[in-house]
Amino acid sequence: MEDNIKNLGVFPSQMIRKMIEAGEIIADKKNIQPASIDLTISGEIYRMKGTFLPRRNEKIREVVENENIYKADLKNPLERNGVYLIRLNEKLLLSKEKFAMASSKSSTGRVDLQTRLLVDGYPRFDMVPSGYNGDLWLQVIPKSFLVKLSAGERLNQIRLYNCQARVGWEDMEEVYEKNKLLFDKDSNFIEAGEKVSKEGGDKLVMNIDLEGEGVGSIIGYKNISKDQVLNFSDIGGHRAEDFFEPIYATKDNSLLLEKESFYIFYTKEAIRIPGDFSGEMIAYDISSGEFRSHYAGFFDPGFGYGENGEIKGRRAVLEVRSFDNNFIFRDAQPICQMGFEKLIEPADFIYSEKIGSHYANQSGPKLSKHFK
After folding, report:
1. Which H, E and C letters describe the chain, residue by residue?
2. Mean pLDDT along residues 233-242
3. Could you tell me the pLDDT band of residue 198, with boundaries at 50, 70 and 90?
4. Domain map of the chain by residue range?
5. Per-residue confidence band for 54, with pLDDT thresholds at 50, 70 and 90
6. What number is the average pLDDT over the span 288-302?
């Protein structure tokens, strides 16, 4: 791929660190990831009448004054399907050429806790416009469980840019072949001809695995609908069977997803993210079904790759919800897409177990770090 975007793209860890030192990001350096920074919640929280977007030039606080039901308290669990607005501890004072995108953290998505970033005067979720100066707010909606939060929890993350950095379809084959991005379940490289095409655009299509290791093997999990409190700060302190029931592979390798239930699945393909790229999981074409396949979308450099490319990918975990109707899924059905973005320069550390990443070595439908 022609290197015509030098000094343009996604900001790696070392450049995020410099932005904090320069006062462009008000944040703690310990929350820096290889190509993103985690955002932390404050104790200022409101129960809102419903979800919303601010109008142009409208402050979030103005909306809060008019549309909140009451000022909530983190001492109490957040109720299921309640819409909450929480001020984040971080602030941005971006120069005019820099902007940001947001996504839920993996541990947030895997407990069906929906988060969407909001900023003053910008009627879009999860986007921070170039040159933004101000507070950051997080809309939080527990969908499956009552959730107990504490100030300082990291539910969401942002990635910083100075240009759109997505690898275009015309360059994808070269990037794919050079970095060997996808492998099958036997660790064999999947040739570019199977995954890269002009019709596929700038994203790789990935498929759901309902075959697993054979009939009777666990291929996923479904939420249990009862008023169980999940304490977000209690890592490894919950019994999985209190919140999820396992799903087992069947002879016909198919499954009926029940409307409005929440599921954890995984992809057939193992994916890896080289050190000079980041990845983003993107919802599959809506014409293929009314379901959502993920809530946490960022993949940091090094996922499934290792220090020197020694790892042949890791499966991507899917957070799936069917909206309008029950939906029949079959093994190897397309479920999501993966886009790749170029970093301005390689990050000075990668996503791995060495930095305490709970999901670095995931191989199946792994639940969040909250479970034993």
Report:
1. CCCCCCCCCECCHHHHHHHHHCCCEECCHHHEECCEEEEEEEEEEEEECCCCCCCCCCCHHHHHHHHEEEECCCCCCECCCCEEEEEEEEEEECCCCCEEEEEECHHHHCCCEEEEEEECCCCCCCEECCCCEEEEEEEEEECCCEEECCCCCEEEEEEEECCCCECCHHHHHHHHHHHCCEECCCCCECCHHHHCCCCCCCEEEEEECCCCCCCCCEEEEEECCCCCEEECCCCCCECHHHCEEEEECCCCCEEEECCCCEEEEEEEEEECCCCCEEEEEEECCHHHCCEECCCCCEECCCCCCCCCCCCCCEEEEEEEEECCCCEEEECCCEEEEEEEEEECCCCCCCCCHHHCCCCCCCCCCCCCCCEC
2. 96
3. confident
4. 13-161, 169-355
5. very high
6. 69
Same fold, 13-161 and 169-355: yes
Q: pLDDT, tens digit, for every residue of 58-103?
A: 999 999 999 999 999 999 999 999 999 999 999 999 999 999 999 9
* Threshold 0.85, pTM exceeds: yes
Tell me the CATH number of domain 13-161, given options 3.40.630.30, 2.60.40.1220, 2.70.40.10, 1.10.3210.10.
Answer: 2.70.40.10
- Tell me: pLDDT of 358 over 70: no
Architecture of domain 169-355: Distorted Sandwich (2.70)
What pLDDT is stored for residue 336 in this prediction? 87
